[in-house]
Amino acid sequence: MISIENLSVAFGGVTALNTVTVELTQPVCGIIGPNGAGKTTLLNVLSGFVLPQSGSIHMMGTNILPMKPHRRARWGLRRSFQKEQVVDELTVEDNVLVLLDQLGLSAAERLNATAAALDFVGLSALRRASAGGLNAFERRMIEIARCVVGRPRVILLDEPGAGFSQGEVEKLRQVISSIHDATRSITLLIDHDVDLIQAVCRETMVLDFGSLIAVGDTASVLTDQKVRAVYLGMEDAA
Fold first, then answer.
1. Interacting residues of 128 by C-beta distance below 8 A, sequence separation 6+
2. Smallest Cα–Cα separation from 190: which of 43, 8, 87?
3. Structural domains of the chain sorted by starting position, each given as residue range(s) with its CATH number in brackets
4. Is the pLDDT of residue 67 over 60?
């Protein structure tokens, strides 16, 4: 479970997160909202890249706020970004292996974990290929392999489905839906593709101007009149 209480972040005079309090318990949880709602800021706080002005965050009972980003990674926090972070000069395998450098695993354990992660995302046949020669979807799959490798506890995915074809999004849906069974981790997913959110997230929270306006079962949240008004653009849903 992820428990967030009274979390606030401000940049100058702009309130990015406004006393957000929420408990997320499902295997895959969605985070949606219009541009500028505070979604990525929330992931940045969870990752340790942004320090909040107030509030607390507990993941699986652990207070993560005092941890530096590298300590959170060692604890089991994984993260992808809107702009993928694949290193072109490395092989597919080495792009994943580097995530395990600080986990205290033996060489054999690192190789086995990397092989399992690449098999999970369907990139085993490309493990020796240079990452620079891969297409955009394959590069995104490297990012997800980096997230599932090495016994993760919490995985944060920031718009992984942006710019892909319907077939590629379907493959992405299958992979994200399988993460919990493979790793037992909780995944938080930001995406503007409501169909993807509805397909993989049992629970969804909605942010608007930094405030939490809805949270709960995804189907119920997506039919909430306030959510439809601020996020889905339904002017008749007052």
1. 91, 92, 93
2. 43
3. 1-76+154-238 (3.40.50.300), 86-151 (no CATH)
4. yes
